[in-house]
Amino acid sequence: MRKPLLLLLLLAGITGLHTVQAQPKNNKPVTPAKEDAPQHGSISLNPDTTVISYHDVTVKGQKIPYKAIAGTQPVWDQDGKVLAGLFYTYYERTDVKDRASRPLVISFNGGPGTPSVWMQIAYTGPRLLNIDDEGYPVQPYGIHENPESILDIADIIYIDPANTGFSRVTGKDAPREKFFGVNADIRYLAEWINTFVSRQNRWASPKYLIGESYGTTRVSGLALELQNAQWMYLNGVILVSPTELGISRNGPVDAALRLPYFAATAWYHKALAADLQQKDLTAILPEVEDFTIHELIPAISQGGFLQEQTRKTIAAKMARYSGLSEKVILQHNLNVPPNFFWKELLRDKGFTVGRLDSRYRGMDREDAGNGPDYNAELTSWLHAFTPAINIYLREELKFRTDLKYLMFGPVHPWDSNGDNTGENLREAMAANPYLHVMIQSGYYDGACDYFNAKYSMWQMDPGGRLKDRLSWHGYRSGHMMYLRKDDLATGNNDIRAFINASLPKAGQPAKY
């Protein structure tokens, strides 16, 4: 009996929202019209609503006025039947005279199963959640101005895919296969973006996709789908903490590529030898990367036929670079699982390290075991983000609803078959000379580690023909590298530079 009750609570209906529009001269947030009383036990969703308000934010010392639209837009089937309503927040600078040349950034997060909350109120948006300078929760919960927002140079829409945030599949008979899989996700979101761009009259604008984590899988596939099925061509794609993008790296390559991340984490926790520890992080990583490519991959490739002395030499170097003992490395046949590393590195100090951000420490029930009891960093982030996004959407943007905001929604089982998104992105770049790609990685991210991101970039361009339009940037934090104050500024500045560099000069044709 517990599951039906939880389902009703989870899908408690959104109250009747009305389209509300303020006068442009008023910069104060707008209070929506009187709403309908909530229907207890309702699982209905109004899939097509807007609540509009006007605000301003000071970015780089410049006051930026903007319009915020918090709303829903439908997903239809081929017969025009509404299958879902997707929640979004759209920020549009209001003192722009030439909207046609104003870039539009379309933003997704990942999971799959999470909304766009993470980058919206912690990275590129005009409002920032309350955290300390390293990204840890503080009270009172809430939000304040984001002085690093990219709203000065681009308008931004944050989209919550089906069954995340306030977005919902609307009917019991709506086919799950329409939404919950790599390629299904890409197809319906491309259609949705087409509708949004048409409604907001943004077809003339230079367009950019930004995705984080699984969102990088999503936007890499969308780059080609928008181009081929919607005839919408992009200027740029930004991959924040990218996944493997369907690019194969099984066996020795997979085992070896994680070592540079191990080294970065060990350096942060001062677990390396003194001569390495006294160097800067970016001074030691090229050495580890070179060893990984030229020695470790060939050694693991030889398996049990690797000469014993060579095996010991390789294990000793791995120990030097990882902070682990030679003994445990040999016990794992040179292939140390990340889960074990997160448990082992600080085992003697009574701590684990975080998966998504290994700067975070956790405390397990016991020191024994092969992996942490919980993800220390994710618990910390949910602590800070959940109150902040509810306060922001409900109180400041006045999106009135009794619907639960899903930080992680019911999207599983997820069909991961047919993930060719890295190749999709390469094909989109090859066919569109305007299209540029930038990758952003945190050195302490153990889920989507920085060296695997580099590897994906290399494999996306095996012929070396696109490398003048591919770039990579590293930051001294984890999966959500922008949670660290210094990286919030640096990361947004890198996005600004990327957008400015990828905008063609007036009259410059898209041709080779």
In short:
35% of the residues lie in helices and 16% in strands. By secondary structure, the protein is an alpha/beta fold.
Describe the structure.
Helix content is 35%, strand content 16%. It is α/β, with parallel strands linked by helices. The protein is globular, with a radius of gyration of 24 Å. Strands 1, 2, 3, 4, 7, 8, 9, 10, 13 and 14 form a 10-stranded mixed sheet that branches. It has 2 domains: 367 residues, Rossmann fold; 126 residues, no CATH class. The N terminus is likely disordered. The protein contains 15 helices and 14 strands.
Attribute tags:
alpha/beta, globular, 512 residues, 10-stranded mixed sheet, Peptidase_S10, single chain, disordered N terminus, 2 domains, Rossmann fold, Carboxypeptidase, glycoprotein
CATH class assignment of the largest domain = Alpha Beta
Low-confidence runs: 1-43
**Count of individual domains:** 2
Instruction: Give the CATH H-level superfamily of the largest domain.
Output: Alpha/Beta hydrolase fold, catalytic domain
Strand content: 15-25%
CATH architectural category of the largest domain: 3-Layer(aba) Sandwich
List the helices and strands and how they pair.
Elements: H1 2-10, E1 49-59, E2 62-76, E3 82-93, E4 104-108, H2 117-120, E5 127-129, E6 143-145, E7 155-159, E8 168-169, H3 182-199, E9 207-212, H4 214-229, E10 236-240, H5 252-257, H6 259-268, H7 274-277, H8 281-301, H9 308-322, H10 326-331, H11 338-344, E11 352-353, E12 361-362, H12 376-396, H13 421-431, E13 436-442, H14 450-460, E14 470-475, H15 485-502
Parallel strand pairs: 4-7, 4-9, 9-10, 10-13, 13-14
Antiparallel strand pairs: 1-2, 2-3, 3-7, 3-8, 5-6, 11-12
Helix pairs in contact: 3-4, 4-13, 6-8, 8-9
Region (Disordered): 23-45
Protein name: Carboxypeptidase
GO molecular function, one term: carboxypeptidase activity
